[in-house]
Design a protein that fits this description.
By secondary structure, the chain is mostly beta strands. It is built from no helices and 15 strands. It folds into two domains: about 90 residues, Immunoglobulins (Immunoglobulin-like, Sandwich), CATH 2.60.40.10; about 80 residues, Sandwich (Immunoglobulin-like). It comes from Bucorvus abyssinicus (Northern ground-hornbill).
Length: about 180
């Protein structure tokens, strides 16, 4: 999420037409098209963040600027040439890294939160703990995971929360 993404399409000689058909997981589909005989591009129902990377006659790649969860879905490039039709399908999955916060609750127990990640993050502790994480889904498709170490006793120990996520791992330490 937040980065630009480029989807390539097979570049063939003597292109007659190139069409990108985009079907987001949620929302309306959109189409970008290029006709070589008229040197004309067309767009139907596409947001400004979806566009040709360069010039479709030279490179039919698609660029998605500031990728967000709304961009998730199927992207298919169809290239038509005198030799035939060529399809390049993609399924775009958007990863959202969670925000890590580590604090101490009123009883002196470490609490680790991996907020608004997609997919849900995994949380582990050092030293190891039998904590059961709680997950809360959000309307935007992200998930917040909360994990608490209980029964630490009165020992002041350095506790580390490790958040595992496909968009990158994070860790933070605290003494409660």
């Amino acid at each position: 999420a937040g980065d630009s993404s480029v989807l390539t399409c097979c570049l063939k000689p003597n292109i007659t037409m190139v069409t990108w058909k985009i079907s987001p997981r949620i929302g309306d589909s959109c189409t970008l098209g290029y006709r070589a005989d008229q040197n004309k591009t067309d767009r139907t129902n596409c947001s400004d963040s979806i566009n040709w990377k360069f010039r479709p006659d030279l490179d039919p790649a698609l660029e998605i600027g500031q990728v967000g969860i709304a961009h998730e879905g199927t992207y298919t490039c169809e290239v038509i040439t005198p030799e035939g039709n060529f399809h390049t399908p993609y399924y775009l999955t958007v990863l959202v890294p969670p925000r890590l916060t580590l604090s101490c609750d009123d009883h002196g127990n470490p609490v680790c939160e991996a907020a608004s990640g997609k997919p849900a993050a995994q949380i582990s502790w050092v030293p190891e703990s039998n904590s059961t994480p709680e997950e809360e889904g959000r309307d935007d498709g992200t998930v917040t995971v909360l994990s608490k170490v209980t029964a630490c006793g009165s020992n002041l120990i350095n506790t580390t929360c490790i958040v595992w996520h496909p968009a990158g791992n994070q860790s933070e330490s605290i003494v409660c």
